[in-house]
């Protein structure tokens, strides 16, 4: 294989300088746009720092300073924000990412159209069959008329006409049935392709660890109000394989192997921290977002790695590494340093060293900017063509990286032909003016947390102040032996004079401070109640029953399902803002780049967070009822899809169906084998159904009989109570009367049983002697031997 000639270094350097000069104006314009976004979100970043301090149980600097200046005041911070925030994270993660099911699906879009076509074909086929049936009946009637000698001869022409109509309808049925079969085949193929696409995307998400990335995004949204996920980003993974070392003669050397890595680009995703994401601050949602900036604060090692993985311009990176990070880089690190100080809870902790800030821009460029870029890379003809067209409707989106005013990389084409942004934004509580104005759990409960802390500090201050009495000392009468006026046990005091203090008081007077803990606890309890209200996280949703006491499992299930209602709005936000656009972009990536033709087709994504996952508890109970009662019903049972019902029941019970159930093909084979080993005729099936119906009827009647007996017992007890109230009968006498009646009844039953035994024995003796039993004349007369 011939080697390609190496490019001329002088030519490459000249082209690089020309590109950097041409891009300088573009980068300056982007830096100006970026500065506007940074300035517009200063207050939002300040709020984020407040929320993080609250999450970590740290007072604001002004409050902390006031408390530090007064050594006698309590400084306690009872952190209720963290458990409530973690409870929201855990609940949303459990709902959106169950271990045995996906919160998304792929469905073929032609399904409704194909179903309509199939239904139309079936309707036409049924109509033609009805007409054929009518013509057959007419033909049979005419044949019967012809066979009857008393009837007049039928019209032969009419009979031929009927036969011709039947033949025509039969001919029309052929293309209709073929069209129906073709539509059904296309439908099956579309469903098969959708299943393969779903499996492919599921495999890609598993490799990129989508569930773990999404958990971090949910955590960001619960803490700061916004979570951002980016994807699909092409991961230039290199899969390695061990190959034998080849010698100079071309033969492999025994025992020597080398690891060779070949690039295998696959789509992936990653979480973007909100503090490093700078969207269009004038946009209230992603549909309105015209551009985004992402900040990558990197050290030298990370910058070198990004250069290798992302294909940055090596000469530019070398120049940047020779320089120190610029001053604006240090300014951009301010909020990162604030986060570091908060998490370390150390005001004097070492700050982050200055980092190189790599900015990643996703958005559109103007016609002038595009022409500048094209001329910079030597494409003058394309630049002139774009300037001639100057179509304001055309949008040319690009992805470019720059650092310290220098271009690192510009993608020749946007990653997706669909033009969709690679970022998805998940708001916990959506804002109205701008995206990053969304708020999380700490901001929702900020005021109530402050009220709770204030009441706790008052309790602690009151408790400390009232723990011991206040001592009033008359210094004219005593003085401490050691010269220290501070009280302590077994301290010695020296009397100074013989003067008596006013009103007969001694040198010491004790005053107790009132204890107001009970009154302050009312404020604490009120704050605790308000916290549950403002964050919409009742105790029942955290696994505690709270004030809703119920003794039945169904009652607990109803309470838990009612508590799920508060999560549906947030889960719906995830479905709309993350699942649908994110999975759609993975579908677009596979349609654009995958070489697997079997997975491609006209499909659509389906977000199933609210429709499937939130009703899991209700589904579990309903599916158990269906499996228990309906599957064995003689009439309803044949309509139930047994295998699908079992699979859905296991999923609702959080059990992986693959660990319990066999494959559908094996299940069908086993059912077929059982049916063949136990053949049943239609009469046997009908008889079994009748027996089942009779059994159900008998069970119903027995239940009705038991109900009637319970009603009779209740009426009897009611009459006894009326008797007691009306005639003043003593309850003991009533009970004695009932006991006597029961004894007589038991005695009569024993007598009857004995008589039946005697009658049976006498009847056996009479039959043995060949005589007819005449009976004894008692309650049962069937056993006395006739004389």
Task: Tell me what you see in this structure.
By secondary structure, the chain is α+β, with helices and mostly antiparallel strands. It has a domain at 110-148 and 155-199. Helices cover 57% and strands 13% of the residues. It has 24 helices and 14 strands. The strands form 5 sheets. The protein has a 5-stranded antiparallel β-sheet with strand order 4-5-6-7-8. Strand 7 (397-403) and strand 8 (406-410) form a beta hairpin. The radius of gyration is 44 Å and the shape is flat. The relative contact order is 0.09.
How would you describe this structure in keywords?
5-stranded antiparallel beta sheet, 787 residues, alpha+beta, 3-stranded antiparallel beta sheet
Anisotropy-based shape = flat
User: Helical segment tally?
Assistant: 24
Main sheet: which strands, in order across?
Answer: 4-5-6-7-8
Low-confidence stretches: 147-153, 782-787
Instruction: Tell me the Rg in angstroms.
Output: 44 Å
Largest sheet: 5 strands, antiparallel
Please state the structural category. alpha+beta
Q: Which strand-content bin applies to the residues?
A: 5-15%
Q: Estimate the mean pLDDT confidence.
A: 76
Counted beta strands:
14
- Which percent range fits the helix content? 55-70%
Please give the alpha-carbon distance between the first and last residues. 127 Å
Protein name: Portal protein
Region (Disordered): 764-787
Coiled coil: 118-145, 180-207
Keywords: Coiled coil
Give a nutshell description of this structure:
The chain has 787 residues and is α+β, with helices and mostly antiparallel strands. Helix content is 57%, strand content 13%. A hairpin with a 2-residue loop joins strand 7 (397-403) and strand 8 (406-410).
